[in-house]
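Pasting as-is:
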Amino acid sequence: MKSQPLVSIIIPTYNHVDLLPRAIKSVLNQTFKNFELIIVDDGSIDNTREVVEGFRKNDERVRYIWQENSGTPAKPKNTGIKNTRYNYIAFLDSDDEWLAEKLEKQFKLFKNLPDKLGFVGCNAIVIDEKNNKKWEYKTPKCKNVFEELLINDFIFSSSSVIVKKKVFNKIGFFDENLKIGEDWDMWIRIAQRYDFDFVPESLFKYYIHNSNITNTLSFEKQEKDLKYIFEKYRQYYKANSKIYSAKLRNDGTRHILARKLQKGRKCFLESIKINPLNFRSYFYFIFSLFGSKFYYKLTTIKRKLKQVLYC
């Protein structure tokens, strides 16, 4: 145990008292024991404090920080980072759950790989509203993490990651202007300077429910934040037509699935204009002509095939 590194685990939470105990227990049940657990309460008005106090009485590794509600998921993460004591930082959303060997298996990569490794992720088990396994997310393999992240946030969830604290010391904090996409923006920034690696196993459970941020924030507000992120990295998109074209193709898919058919098709056409050799955009445009429901079925089939092929 003394040879293990020390990790600070941050659980940001807001009015999730019904789900939070499950997340906390999954941390305390880790086979890896050298950690502190920081629960950052972003102004909850339920009895989150009382629930956390119950855990604190039984385990001195549990810490509790309360702050006024910030209205952004970035703020409690930043508060947690500023209060960490150890050299590695892991995140767990208060509605998710780690498997018992998550930290142990991820730290094996940090131990065996070069110092430039700053980030370790993993796969996820997606659980539906009825508590049934819906599907399994397998992190796609890619040669250039930075370029792939410009196209799409393939990390899936901050609940999967461990980051060296020195990375945040150099990169800075999560962007508090964002209500969604703060993780994606951070991963892009980290990938510019550090290597990424992934444990090819599903080490946490991601729960789908009505209070997920994507279900509570309007599509228009989500698009505003995604546009903000695009503007931050515009120079990279403009310098690489393949990356920009692929991003537009993903934008088109997002709009089609949101029943914004005209906007989605426009994205596909712009993708083709920027890179005429992006043949997938031609197919996606044709598929979009059959409507959102048909397109959704195709994307579901595609996702299942990718998971089988692990690509």
